[in-house]
Design a protein that fits this description.
Blueprint lengths: L1 H13 L5 H20 L10 H13 L9 H20 L26 H9 L7 H16 L3 H5 L10 E5 L5 E5 L2 H13 L1 H4 L17 H15 L6 H14 L4 H8 L4 H4 L1 H5 L1 H11 L6
Antiparallel strand pairs: 1-2
């Protein structure tokens, strides 16, 4: 088994090009697996059965005197390494069967996107900067655009002036996909104020929509700093561009938007990616149920 393990790790390093840290984690996981098999009296991979692999997964989750119990994500990584080892052994003719084929990694808890309230969004935008300053107008237009369209930060800073139309904006997302998203009155008014009163002084001939103080295109890092500064002034912690994007989606679904419409607005390739936002609104569902169902009243 040691020889197969060495060959597999070499395959991962040379042919798959795994990062050093990932490779080290795989090595630790697989060495623990080999020890587990030896404890069961298995000397060759062909002697290993599916029950042995399942027992290893249980040992990972429960821990023992030498190893603490692993969380689902770490156990899933270890099981992935074991499954890869057995696939490799079968493919190389070292083993006649793959006992790990039907063993599935533990399900990981789905992390729900963080969203802030509408009132907190308003506080954030109101904290764009000193009243009337040109860069404040830009900052407000940027924050209104991020929240008003659900754009990724890379999509927002990649906008050109020509991407703006009367009541919509053209966003270029992942994989070069382009989508047209409506923009509301607040974002439109903030953009108009920036375009008329601030942007001409920065670089009127640049095609980029959002500009920095030197007239160049605002970078992702620059946009991040705008957001962080506004969040600090507003007294809000843990704010990121993704938080505004998540808030955009959550508030739409709270307002009754169909999940497939939100999918299109966010530029998700699959509706299953968007459906996570329906989980965020459980509190809202409880409120509606408590207020509307005759048997919900205490």
């Amino acid at each position: 088994m040691e020889a197969v393990l060495s060959s597999y790790l070499a395959h991962l390093a040379v042919e798959r090009g795994l990062a050093a840290n990932t490779l080290a984690s795989y090595r630790r996981d697989l060495q623990r697996y080999v020890e587990h098999l030896r404890g069961l009296g298995r000397k060759e991979l062909d002697e290993v059965g599916e029950a042995d692999v399942q027992a290893f997964l249980s040992a990972l989750r429960e821990g023992d005197g030498r190893h603490p119990a692993l969380v689902a994500s770490s156990a899933a990584r270890a099981v992935s390494a074991v499954r890869g080892l057995h696939r490799f052994a079968l493919r190389e003719g070292v083993a006649a069967h793959d006992p790990a084929h039907e063993v599935r990694p533990p399900r990981q808890l789905r992390r729900l996107p963080k969203a802030i309230s509408v009132a907190e969004v308003e506080r954030l935008i109101a904290a764009s900067g000193p009243e009337g300053a040109p860069l404040t107008l830009r900052n407000r237009a940027l924050l209104e655009t991020l929240y008003g369209t659900g754009a990724r930060i890379s999509e927002a800073v990649g906008l050109a002036v020509d991407d703006l139309e009367q009541d919509q904006v053209r966003l270029r997302g992942k994989g070069g996909r382009t989508r047209v998203v409506p923009i509301g009155r607040y974002a439109r008014e903030a953009l108009d104020a920036y375009l008329v009163r601030a942007r001409p002084a920065l670089a009127p001939r640049s095609p980029a929509l959002f500009l920095n103080a030197r007239g160049g295109r605002l970078t992702r890092q620059g946009a991040w700093e705008v957001l962080q500064a506004a969040a600090e002034r507003a007294g809000l912690a843990g704010i990121s561009p993704h938080v505004l994007r998540h808030s955009f989606a959550t508030h739409l679904i709270d307002g009754g938007a169909d999940v497939r419409v939100v999918q299109e607005l966010l530029g998700h390739a699959s509706v299953t990616t968007t459906q996570v936002y329906t989980l965020v609104t459980v509190d809202r569902l409880r409120e509606v149920y408590a207020a509307a169902h005759p048997r919900a009243r205490q």
